[in-house]
Amino acid sequence: MYIIQSGKVKISKKIGNFEKTLALLPTGDFFGEMSILNNRPRSATATVIEDANLLVIDPKTFETMIRNNAEIAIRIIKKLAGRLQEADHQIESLLLKNHNQRVVHILVRWAEARGKPENQGIRVGGNEQELETASGVESGKLAPLWDEIAKAGVARKDEKGYFIPDLDKLKKYLDYLSMKEQFGG
């Protein structure tokens, strides 16, 4: 298992000829615990994408830490539960056929989960790579989607992340996209 003491790590998986980013992990996060917990080979690839300092924890040390420190065990359980919930949300998003629906769905979810009030709206931190990863939209394909979202006036991106002036309006826009998909046009 690895704990990211500084930097950022991308977790990805090669499926056929394509590499799919599964997560972008920041400082303080960890990875590699699944292979220790289920005693199987790693199922994904970890790549350092920002200079990083990693703490390596071998299986025996990991088990000792879990057995001897309930607080560490609870933190790991909470983190794994959060990752499972995030995977459920990602599956839900990927079931949406339309890329625009996926992006708007992710923005709604992010606004509800981690949005901060700002200037009579909601600020959501994040960047294009995170949004591509969460929505399953291929790298570089967000620009035309943003044109539509900006035209509707429901969200905008800037150097701080994403700004949503009215969450209810964004939700209505998602409903509109769903109806448009369902009824055509």
Q: Keywords for this structure?
A:
185 residues, Jelly Rolls, Arc Repressor Mutant, subunit A, 4-stranded antiparallel β-sheet, 8 strands, 50% helix
Set out the fold topology.
Layout: E1 2-15, E2 18-25, E3 30-31, H1 33-37, E4 45-56, H2 59-68, H3 70-94, H4 99-114, E5 116-118, E6 121-124, H5 128-135, H6 142-152, E7 156-158, E8 161-164, H7 167-183
Helix pairs in contact: 2-3, 4-5, 4-6, 4-7
Task: Provide structural commentary.
- With 185 residues, the protein is an alpha+beta fold.
- The chain has two domains: 2-69, Jelly Rolls (Sandwich), CATH 2.60.120.10; 99-183, Orthogonal Bundle (Arc Repressor Mutant, subunit A), CATH 1.10.10.
- It is built from seven helices and eight strands.
- Strands 1, 2, 3 and 4 form a four-stranded antiparallel β-sheet that branches.
- Helix 4 (99-114) packs across helix 5, helix 4 packs across helix 6 (142-152) and helix 4 packs antiparallel against helix 7 (167-183).
- It is elongated, with a radius of gyration of 19 Å.
Number of extended strands: 8
**Helix-strand pattern, N to C?**
EEEHEHHHEEHHEEH
- Class computed from helices, strands and strand pairing: alpha+beta
**Number of structurally distinct domains:** 2
CATH fold-level topology of the largest domain:
Arc Repressor Mutant, subunit A
Question: What's the CATH C level of the largest domain?
Answer: Mainly Alpha
The fraction of residues assigned to DSSP E strands is 25-35%
> What can be said about the biggest beta sheet?
4 strands, antiparallel
Nearest-integer average pLDDT: 88
Distance between the termini: 49 Å
Q: In CATH, what is the homologous superfamily of the largest domain?
A: Winged helix-like DNA-binding domain superfamily/Winged helix DNA-binding domain
| Tertiary shape | elongated
What oligomerization state is this entry in? single chain
Q: Please give the share of residues in helix.
A: 40-55%
Summed up, the helix count is: 7
Cα-based radius of gyration, to the nearest Å:
19 Å
Low-pLDDT windows of residues = none
